[in-house]
Amino acid sequence: MVTRHRLRLAASVGALATVMAAAAAQPARAAATVTWERWLHLPGVFDLAGPRSDGRLVAAVHGKLTLIDPTGNVTDYAPQYAAPDGSESYIALSPGLRVDAARCSFARDDLFALDLRATVPGVLRVGADGSVSTLAVIPGASTLSGITFDTTGAFGHRLVVIGTAGQGRTEVATVDCAGNVNPVGVVATTLEGGIAVAPPGFGPHAGQLIAANELDGNVYAVSPAGLLSAVAASGVPSGQDTGVESVGFYSDTSATAYVADRGTAGNPHPGTDSVLRLSGAALASAGVRPGDLLAATEGGDTLVDVRCAGTCASTKVASGPAVAHGEGRLLLVAPGSVNGASGATTAPPAVQADSSDHTRALIGTAAAAVLVLGGGVVLWMRRSRLNAI
Questions:
Q1: pLDDT digits 0-9 by tens, 43-56
Q2: What DSSP character marks residue 149?
Q3: Is the pTM of this model over 0.85?
Q4: Buried b (16+ CB within 10 A) or exposed e, 265-274
Q5: Section 224-229 average pLDDT
Q6: Pick from 44, 136, 58: which is nearest to 95 by CA?
Q7: Which of 149, 150, 305, 320 could bond to 36 as cystine, CB 3.0-4.6 Å?
Q8: In angstroms, rounded to a whole number, what is the distance separating the alpha carbons of residues 378 and 76?
Q9: What's the CA gap between 34 and 281, in Å, rounded?
């Protein structure tokens, strides 16, 4: 009996080796490299959100907020709002989401900002009319380091926030429109910067929170149950103020990418105090496809494209100014993201997988099945031995 199960386990291990060899044999992807355009000089800019229903972006600049129209004209916004200058009080703009569990909605064009002024950090709500109020405080985190909306429903259409929970640990929590805080979990890695929830079709990480660790250069996923998994290595330089910082999903072939290049005096990457952008045409020429994840580094705003089906792989697709200091969200704006005066948003499409993606998906599924089978056999054998004793 034991011999037969050992043979099954050996067969499982052999199948796993075959699967892994097949995955490794997937052809490497070649891509052109394009260059970020220095679109708008905006001193102190460190995060971007939007677009609003009027087509304007919101920028966090020093300790205040500004609005940027499509032609680059800048106007002050919400004079009652103030954040510590030099802080990373990141922002997220509501596309108008209903939270059924809380029986309320996040109003379209309301802005939410990390509130880092108090000992216990929280989230501020900035109304479309410029009014400012506290939405929630987030216990358990010494500071907060990222904020985004779940537009997929995997986290209940809530705000998702992350923050430091000790050395090398990050707390993940959600906040609903009534201010209720729901802990997701504490994960054993350092996450901060621009974060996003993966759309349908993003391989095994669809519906999970995607965030980067600039220190080790890896991109990670956190499930709604609080489970951490690695998505991909960025393949570009990593380290403090150097590695991947900002992530966003490319939803449309005509979407334009924006990122803040913050002026940071005395830093190895001192920045240019600018908003950088890449056109949809430039991204397409670099081989980026709808449904791909884009991740930009803090040092130099190097951009990598992460494509997931059964497995995930990253490819460098763009470079920024060598002195660039990327911060906050990697914002991708498609022409269809604003629908007239109603402000209705267009959801990003699922990844359109080609035949190689389907092959990678089958390989990933087979690998998971082999691992589960092998683990089950080992557990059965251990129990059988204990019963025999």
A1: 999 999 999 999 99
A2: E
A3: no
A4: eeeebebbbb
A5: 98
A6: 58
A7: 320
A8: 63
A9: 10
Residues near 167 by Cβ (< 8 Å), separated by ≥ 6? none
Q: Which among 292, 111, 109 is positioned nearest to 196, based on CA atoms?
A: 292
Packing angle, helices 355-388 and 2-24, rounded to 10? 160
- pLDDT value, residue 152: 97
With left for phi above 0 and alpha for psi between -120 and 50, is residue 181 left, alpha or beta? Answer: beta
In the predicted model, what is the mean pLDDT of residues 376-381? 40
Does residue 12 register a pLDDT over 60? no
Tokens of 14: 């052999």
Q: Which tens digit of pLDDT belongs to each residue from 325-351?
A: 999 999 999 987 654 332 333 344 443
Query: Measured between alpha carbons, how far is 177 from 135 in angstroms, rounded to an integer?
Result: 8
Contact 39, 72 (CB under 8 A): yes
Note the Cα 383 to chain centre separation in Å.
42
281-287 contacts at long range (C-beta below 8 A, 24 or more positions apart):
281/254, 282/34, 282/318, 283/34, 283/250, 283/255, 283/257, 283/317, 283/318, 284/253, 285/32, 285/34, 286/31, 286/32, 286/33, 286/34, 286/317, 286/318, 287/29, 287/30, 287/31, 287/32, 287/315, 287/317
Is the per-residue pLDDT at 248 higher than 50? yes
